[in-house]
Amino acid sequence: MARIGYARVSTIDQDLDIQHAKLKAEGCSVIRAEKVSGGSRDGRTELATVLDFLRPGDELVVTRLDRLGRDTRDVLNLIHECEQRGAFVTVLDPHVSTRGEMGHIVLTVLGMVAQMERRFIKERQRDGIERAKGEGVYQGGKRRIDRERILALHSNGAGATTIAKAIGCSRMQVYRVLQS
Q1: Residues 97 and 14 in one domain
Q2: Regarding beta strands 59-62 and 30-35, do their DSSP bridges make them parallel or antiparallel, or are they unpaired?
Q3: Which residues are named in the active-site annotation (predicted)?
Q4: Are residues 92 and 153 in the same domain?
Q5: Which of 69, 81, 121, 131 is the S-S candidate for 74 at Cβ 3.0 to 4.6 Å?
Q6: What average pLDDT does the chain have?
Q7: How large is the average pLDDT for residues 75-81?
């Protein structure tokens, strides 16, 4: 039986040290961590690794339930997948485990709270953007793709697949840039 820790923060400028220390203090023999949004499972390769690694009797440990995800259905599906593998899920704050029936109820409620909190965050973000637009100071989000490099590679005869690999994006994103 292994205790496997999973730590997650949403952005690359956030720190994983506190979660890592708490998981280590709880006796987690393996700790996987990543910096990616918890809104969905997309791009959460470390979580996928943990789920693949779980064996019967193992325990997945997270510091808070929202580290697993911010969508109630997704969190409940993750817990279900762990149980299908014969593993348990333990949340440290507040201390809840799927080892007991009451733990399932509490985790469901906490999952709903995490989802609601995500909606509030998005609402506040949207309000802030609208206010900044009204004041004329909104600059827009950071461009994630180097459009000029895509156009340069395309003008040199590179195809969408080659460009996507060179830039580190999808072909669809390349096509969107080329069409605009």
Answers
A1: yes
A2: unpaired
A3: 10 (o-(5'-phospho-dna)-serine intermediate)
A4: no
A5: 69
A6: 89
A7: 89
Active-site annotation holds for 37: no
pTM, whole model, 2 decimals? 0.66
Catalytic site residue from 10, 40, 155, 170: 10
The average pLDDT across 124-148 equals 86
**CB contact at 8 A, 33 and 20:** yes
Q: Which residues, 6 or more positions from 17, have their beta carbon under 8 angstroms from its beta carbon?
A: none
Q: With contact defined as beta carbons under 8 Å apart, do 46 and 33 qualify?
A: yes
Domain match, 152 and 85 both: no
pLDDT on residue 59: 96
Range of the domain at 59: 3-116
Q: In one letter, which amino acid is 89?
A: V
Considering the domain boundaries, does residue 136 fall inside one? no
138: in domain? no
Domain contains 132: no
Q: How far apart are CA 174 and CA 144, in angstroms?
A: 12
For residue 91, name the pLDDT band (cuts at 50, 70, 90).
very high
Query: For the chain, what is the domain count?
Result: 2
* Opening angle at CA 169, ends 152 and 31, nearest 5: 145
What is the tens place of the pLDDT at every residue in 23-59?
Answer: 999 999 999 999 988 878 888 999 999 999 999 999 9
Whether residue 154 sits in one domain with residue 87: no
